Structure formats: structure tokens, C-alpha cells
Amino acid sequence: MLGKLLVIGFGPGSFEHMTNRALTAIQESHCIIGYKTYVDLISDLLTDQEIISTGMSEEVSRAQAAVKLAEEGKTVAVISSGDAGVYGMAGLVYEVLIEKGWTEETGVSVEVVPGVSASNSCASLLGAPIMHDACTISLSDHLTPWKLIEKRIEAAAQADFVISLYNPKSGRRTRQIQEAQRILLSYRSPNTPVGLVKSAYRERQHIVITDLQNMLDHDIGMLTTVVIGNSSTFLYDNKLITPRGYQRKYTLDKTEQRLKPHERLRHENEPWALHQGKKEDEQIQKKSQTRKAEAAPAAKVSEPKETSLDLALEALSLVAGENAGARANEGQKKNEIYNPVVSVFELAISPGVVNKHFTPKQMITLAEVVGNEGTMEYTPHHQIHLRIPTAEPEMITGRLKDAGFLIEPIGDVFQLKACDFCDGEKKDAIPQAEEINKRLSGLELPKELRVGFNGCGMACYGAVNDDIGIIFRKGKFDLFLGAKTVGRTAHAGQPVAEGIEPDKIVPLIEEIISDYKEKGHPNERFFKYFKRVGKILDYTYKDMTPKIEIEPAPCGD
Predict the structure, then answer these.
(1) CB 194: neighbour CB atoms within 10 A?
(2) pTM of the prediction?
(3) What distance in Å separates the CA atoms of residue 112 and residue 85, rounded to the nearest whole number?
(4) Using one digit for the tens of pLDDT, what is the confidence trace for 467-508?
(5) Is 14 exposed, middle or buried, given 0-12, 13-18 or 19+ CB atoms closer than 10 A?
(6) CA 444 to CA 394: how far, in whole Å?
């Protein structure tokens, strides 16, 4: 039986501003999945639910984990602050479902639980700044090209929208808010009221009222929402107020109004409207007169009589003009339709599983493919990582494959890190290394995982220090599991088996990887998974952490 996905927006973070449905949805869930900070905010509401919390930039893994658990029959809550449909998880959950061929009729049940968005909660603390037409714009360019964000800021500024800026600034992204201010000052007064709200309705709530010219003099961060007024927004008693336009018809300081209720919607009392204050029959009459004037024949003027040649030439010129116009329109349509999306294509390349030598032809191809806009980064894992802005990734992979490169994805995937087998001289274990790579390379996993593979007992490439280590020795294989690959308490993997027959090693690794893929939590490294479950197949976990006193790392790892 299929389960249910509850995509919950729990509002600003305080319980009193959470909807009743959000509260009950959390309580009825078997599993809670969310960003660590958001899980902490609702921790007092949690009972015995399974908790999966991950860090920033792990949204995709959270959505995938939620879908997987729901398909197993569980009720899963995917939580977002604010509203789940406003820069939250709702859209991403649907995208992951669509990739799996989900339909509402046959797939898992999905309910999006609305919440109070940051724009609304922050506006309530500032007064009434979004009483009129408003928009939200995220300044984060991690997923959206900055050129597109610039266009949106300019369009909103030009159209006099009240603007709420989300994700205005972070430790790495500091210029975006400066560029936004520059664009806005081209269209708005420096004195335009601006409200800065950090952590609305949370313990560290902080509110600043300023203006467009001076807003950068104040602290702005990832938890700040920047609300920028329009041309009519004013400041009164430290409150931002954006008039709706009632002053055009009503007198706000008098009880008796100039216009009676039955007069207020008459055309003559709304000269600013589309009808320009004219009655409907007047508009129809004006349109009729315009059409008649356009259709009326011009006054007859004595002109030389046209010959048949003149008429033919005129007809040809009209046809030529129509064809040219049609071609221009066709070209315009083609330009409108063909709007390629340029994104940064990321991939890893190497000369091969065993081969560690690049040819001059490969290096030339690499330089041509990457060009001036892309980047190349050599890694300690015998790969070069490429980041190339392109609208045609297939063309890039085609050229790299033609040059003889082994191409693999980057991210939370399986990677085999083999030695060079003494430049191929110690070749007995090469078939197993290549077969493991063929079967598992690029497989998506809860976290990036590397299998170190050494072709002799010297283990000079350090296979024991990778997540899984395989060493070929005396015609058979030794297996190591759960190395902690980084950190001050890094350690080698636990030796779990010796003397594994060559025909057994490949299916054994497949089984271990399958176990981790199925049961590992998103963003959970292999050594942590081994420690949590206590046993993988027949191999029982043993703590290999060095027995020395070391102060915990700042990240809490």
C-alpha cells in the first residue's frame, strides 16, 4: 500500500502562527524530513517519528528520500518554514515525483499544507507595506542565472511593485544586494521606505526601518527579508504603509462621503480606469466612428490612368513585401521558440579505471571543450572535474568520449578509485576493478562513496583509507569497511574479511552498495551508516576511532 507525502509550510517558526492543519499533519506523520534548523524549530512537536535532517543544498536528497519512504507505505512530512510553495519544498517534491512517472491517480498521495510566508509575516511586523501590488524575488543565484534575476528586479522596479527580497545576502554572496539596490535607485527615490526583518516571530527577531539609500548600512543576512516600498509607500510612526488608493474616491477623515454607494463604480468617477471615465455607449460610438473613418474612401483626385504594366509591377512589389514580412515573422517566431537554457554542466573525467596517463590529443580536446568560460579542477581521486556553461551537454560528452575519456557524474554517487596496477604490470585484479566500475559507476547514493582498489598487498594507493577498501593479495581479496576519510579523527577502514575468491568480490560489493543505497539516510556517510546499523551483511561494526582526546570539530561531525 502506498503512503502519503505531506509537504508542510509551518510559517515563521512560532507555534502560535502555525496553522492547525500543519500541527496535525506533523503529528500524523511517521517520518519528518527537513533542513536541520527547521527540524530544531519544531522539535517540541515531535514524538516518536523517524527524523531525517540534512544541511543546506541537500534539498534534492530530502525530496528523494521522502518519495522513497512514501512509496514504502509511510506517511512522510517534508517541512519548510514559511509556505512550502514559496521557495519551499513543494515544487521540488513534485519534480522528483514526475521524474519517476508519478500520477495523482496511481501514485502516492500528496498534500501541500500552506503556511504563512516570510513576505506576509515580515509585512505584519512592518505595518502594511504590501497593501497593493507586490512581488517576491530571490537574490540567490545558485540555481537561477543572475542576468535573469537582474531583469526581474528591473521589471518590478519599473512597474512600481512593492518588492520583498528573499535570500538577500550570505557569507559568499555579498554583491547581489548591492546590485539590487543600484537597479532600484534607477527607478525609485533614495527616500523610498525599506523594512529589514530578521527571524520574524522567532527568539532573535530584529526589525530595522530604513530607506533605499541607506539600507546597506545595516546588517543583512540569509535570515533577513528586505521589503521595499513603492512610489506611494510612506512612513508613519515607524510603520510602512502602502495606500490601496481609497483617497481617489473617499475622504478618510469624514464620515459622509462625496460619492454615494451607487455612484462609486460609475465610469465618470474612475477616469484612471481602462475605460478612461467614458460610458460604455460612448466607447462603442467612438470605436464605430474610428472604423468608419478608416474605411471611408479618400477624396477623389485626378490621377494619371494606370497601365496594365503599372498594376503588374505594383502587385509584384506587394507579393515581395508580404513574403519578406512572412520571412521576418517566421524568423521572429523561430527566435522566440529557440531560447536555449544555458546551465553549468558538471562532470568528472579520467583516462580510465587503470590508466593514469593523458595523451596530448586528450589535453587539446579538454582545453577546447572547457574554453574560456569553463573551469577544470584536478582532484586527489584521479579525476578532473569540469564545470562548463552550455546549452548542449550532449555535444560535450560526445567529444570527450571520442577522445577516449572515461566520463562520470559528480555528486552523491559511487566512484571507484583504483591504483595504476604498477602501470598494468600487476594485471591479475584488473578485470574485477573494471567490472565493479562498469556495474556501479555513477550510481546515486545517500552520500558520495569511494571504493579504493589496490592491485597488490603493498596497497600504496591507500585503499584502506577509502569508504570501502579492496586489496588484492596472494590471488584473493581482502575487504575493509567504514573508513573515516576526513577530519581530525580520520581512520582506516575496519578489516572485515580476508581471502575472498575473485569470482565473489564483485557481487559482494554490489550487495554492500545496494544495502547502503536502500537503508542509508540522505547525506549520511558510509562510516556513519555502518555505525548506525551496526551490521552490514555478516560484517559487524567495530569502532576504529583513535583513542585520544580531541576537541569536537565546529561542525559537530
Answers:
(1) 28
(2) 0.62
(3) 8
(4) 999 999 999 999 999 999 888 889 999 999 999 999 999 999
(5) middle
(6) 20
